[in-house]
Amino acid sequence: MRKTTVAFLCYDRHDDRDRSVSGFRDATTAALASQTPDRLEIFRDRVNIRWGARWRERIRETLDETPLLIPIVTPNFLQSDECRDELECFLEGEDRRRRWDLILPVYFYPIRSIDDDEPIAGDYLVEELRRRQWLDWIELRAEPPDSSRRQAYPSRLATELLTALEPKPAVPSELRVGSREEYRTIGTAVEAARRWDRVLVTEGTYREAITIDRPVEIVRLGDVSKIVVESSSDNVISVQADQGTSPFATSEAAARASKSPTGAW
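Above: the chain sequence. Below: its structure as tokens.
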């Protein structure tokens, strides 16, 4: 019986020189086999791509077809153009599927920018990974291979994989903005939002410059004439995402903002 690919292992090859990534994959595959009668496998390029095959095309096809992505997050991963391309490709697939719980990052080696909770300027892929539920392998790597905690980890990941495979409706979260709401500014709500969440803006004057760097839906509630965004910045709202909807980010509003000395919309 042919095996079904359940997840794509996204990693930098330098991190597998000691076969630690390969061993991690093998242990997780064995854990999957112990939890389900289905013949499931985790795709890894050196194992699943035949000699002579066009590996870039094969990887792209697999990313489009595979339900889940497991990024092995290390400093090498963040510096790898191939890993970043694979992650970005899968994020696009999440958008098409309207599911944003299909990436299960494994924290393999310490990374200061993640440990210190300090954003890397302009690195939206790192920010996207940090919003996900992490599985931390760093401490367990130092434990003996036969330790109970280390052996339990692949079983936990296998359970997470099988749970993520279950069909789920795509229900975006709603983040409310206002003087009496959880978020007092539009910018903090956008920053906290996941892809395709809804940011609900209530009546009020918001003195801030907003950067929209991910696909979200921004909705005005109540009397829209009483919802004002103003800033002394030249760009009141900067849209860096290629998808999403905002009642503020229109050509008409942009024209008004460019003529306003305060940048009020």
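The chain is about 40% helix and 20% strand.
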